[in-house]
Design goal:
- Helices cover 32% and strands 21% of the residues.
- The mean pLDDT is 95.
- Helix 1 crosses helix 8 (250-265), helix 4 crosses helix 5 (142-154) and helix 4 crosses helix 8.
- It has 268 residues and is of the alpha/beta class.
- The protein has eight helices and twelve strands.
- The protein has helices spanning 28-38, 55-63, 90-95, 115-125, 142-154, 166-177, 235-243, 250-265, and strands at residues 14-20, 43-49, 68-73, 87-88, 100-103, 109-112, 134-138, 158-162, 183-186, 196-199, 223-226, 246-248.
Length: 268
């Protein structure tokens, strides 16, 4: 928080949670809380470490609290929250994945997914145009599926998706191809021939992790992205930067996702 603007926290504060398993790596509680306070709202964002087996019970419990207005969702709960929402956006319904919830007037939850929108916005700010580009995406999970949807609807001419869970990959490929926006195929970790290569998996968070995309095959003309926020620059992204590639880090992505989530939580 800004030391010149102390956190306003008292009995009237409105509470928003960010829930995940693990949760220690997230940086958003401070930034989201600051955004609330900058908007003149007496509200804070609090981390919650909840295992998948406990998620429905935890959500039911916090829903009883009259001052809990929102829930931000991180790994691995984005798909599970689709079933815990009473209503969702059309985007959330297509993806069956949710990363932000706010209250309906009756107290139930309305969900939406902003990972893809935020990623495409961040790409544009880094000078990466999607129009007519050939993109490789590694990861078909909650964030990956959202990014894939936004790439397909954002102008790429071809998207290849790679995921070790081939059933999940193939299901996503089939559903995105049915939109008729561009060519969508199953891919691999080899970026040869692609204009854009994005990692949307947790691979790279731990020291010694392999590069999720074969960085030895990067070329300077490629744009390379990642969703990981800790470390701020993953070894794969560092390898791309060393070649002179344009890059997008998870932290740069999340800055845009955060703004979209806060707007949504504030009712925009």
């Amino acid at each position: 928080m800004n030391p010149t603007q102390p956190l306003h926290l008292d009995g009237a504060s409105r509470i928003h949670f960010i829930v995940g398993d693990p949760i220690a790596q997230v940086k958003s509680p401070s930034g989201v809380s600051q955004a609330f306070q900058d908007a003149g709202l007496n509200a804070v964002c609090i981390p919650a470490h909840v295992a998948p087996a406990d998620l429905a019970r935890w959500t039911a419990g916090v829903s009883l609290s009259k001052n809990v207005d929102g829930i931000i969702v991180t790994v691995p709960h984005k798909f599970a929250y689709f079933d815990l929402c009473a209503t969702t956006s059309d985007r959330g319904a297509f993806l069956k994945s949710i990363n932000t919830l706010r209250r309906n007037p009756d107290g139930s939850w309305h969900g939406d997914m902003f990972d893809g929108l935020g990623y495409v916005k961040a790409l544009a700010l880094k000078g990466c145009s999607l129009q007519g580009q050939k993109a490789l995406l590694v990861g078909a999970g909650g964030a990956g599926s959202a990014i894939a949807y936004s790439l397909v609807t954002g102008g790429v001419r071809e998207l290849a998706i790679h995921d070790e869970d081939t059933a999940r990959r193939d299901a996503l490929v089939q559903r995105l191809a049915a939109l008729g926006q561009c060519t969508v195929v199953a891919g691999s970790s080899d970026p040869t021939g692609f204009d854009i290569a994005i990692n949307a998996t947790p691979i790279g968070m731990k020291a010694g992790d392999p590069h999720p995309i074969e960085s030895a095959k990067f070329t300077p003309a490629m744009f390379v992205g990642c969703v990981i926020t800790a470390p701020a620059v993953t070894p794969m992204v560092a390898a791309a930067q060393a070649l002179g590639c344009g890059t997008l880090t998870g932290t740069e992505m999340f800055a845009q996702v955060k703004d979209l989530m806060v707007d949504f939580l504030l009712g925009a």
